[in-house]
Amino acid sequence: MPAGGGIGGDAVDEGGGGGVRGIWAGIVRRREVLLSGAARRISGTGIVGVLTVANPPNACAPLEAADAKESNYPFFVLIERGECNFVSKVQYAQDAGYAAAIVYDNEDSHELVKMSGNGFSIDIPAVFVSKEAGFVLSQFVNDKDARLYMLPALETSAWSVLAVSSISLLTLSAILSTFLFVRRQRLRRANLRLLQEPTGLSNDEIKALPIVAFNQKDVASPESCAICLEEYAFGDKLRILPCKHRFHVPCIDNWLNRRPFCPICKREAFSTSIEVSSDNAPLLSSISWQLGSTLPLLVSPGAASGRAAESSSAGESSL
């Protein structure tokens, strides 16, 4: 049989012999045989031994003891099912000094087998395997290089399943709660930042700010927009803020939609009055800047003198 192969069988002992369900035997590397489960509990990591066949094969009578001089390992006995109950076979194996008993089925059946008998006096492990598994095991009888390992069966109880399920559920709940809590805190901080940020100007307030066309003759050196960092070209439309800083119309409009202050000096971008300098006033004079008005931003000296002459002539004519 190839290394690592497995053969399965089922058995139940109703007489207290420690029935086993889901027994399997497998041939592993180095011609070692692995058996899981036993009639009696196996402590520690299990037991190891060599296999010999029962004499008589069905172990319904006292068995011949194995020669301990042939091996330094304890002996396991391979017994055929039939003619007497399971407990009697194992009892004879124990009386003959065997360390464990392996009973194999004498029929090609995979149905659940029920064994009866009183096994309170049995102290050695015992397992029941299928006929096919017994045939495979018989190939290793009296083989000095073959070793059998009998391991304790893995037992699961309702309490262990419930405990594992509860721990898994609590762990999942804790992870989910932590995720939701962190997400809620992040959303809360984001909302606080949005509330703390100033709101921009409305479209009507932005449109109320004056627009002029750029003329290179008005400035001594080239100017650039502080937002897009591009130099002004002749004829570019610039929007002027109350602080006298000017920017490209699309650039400053987009800025003012989100922030109500100048991107350079941080002064409020919307005001009902503008302070302008005048050569005729001692220092500064304030003129009212009504929304929607079309007052000129700059007045040339020639225009001012012309208006003064017109007003004086009008006064003389009235006299």
TrEMBL record:
GO cellular component, one term: endomembrane system
Chief place where the protein resides: membrane
Domain named RING-type: residues: 225-266
Transmembrane segments: 158-182
Keywords annotated in UniProt: Glycoprotein, Membrane, Metal-binding, Signal, Transferase, Transmembrane, Transmembrane helix, Zinc, Zinc-finger
Domain of life the protein comes from: Eukaryota
Pathway: Protein modification; protein ubiquitination
EC number: 2.3.2.27
GO MF, any single term: zinc ion binding
SUPFAM superfamilies per UniProt: PA domain, RING/U-box
EC primary class: transferase
Keyword Isomerase set for record: no
Catalysed reactions, semicolon-separated: S-ubiquitinyl-[E2 ubiquitin-conjugating enzyme]-L-cysteine + [acceptor protein]-L-lysine = [E2 ubiquitin-conjugating enzyme]-L-cysteine + N(6)-ubiquitinyl-[acceptor protein]-L-lysine
SMART domains per UniProt: RING (SM00184)
Zinc-finger listed as a keyword: yes
Signal peptide: none
InterPro entries: E3_ligase_sorting_rcpt, PA_dom_sf, PA_domain, Znf_RING, Znf_RING/FYVE/PHD, ZNRF4/RNF13/RNF167_PA
Subcellular location per the Swiss-Prot or TrEMBL entry: Endomembrane system
UniProt membrane topology term: Single-pass type I membrane protein
Name of the protein described by the UniProt record: RING-type E3 ubiquitin transferase
Organism of origin: Ceratopteris richardii (Triangle waterfern)
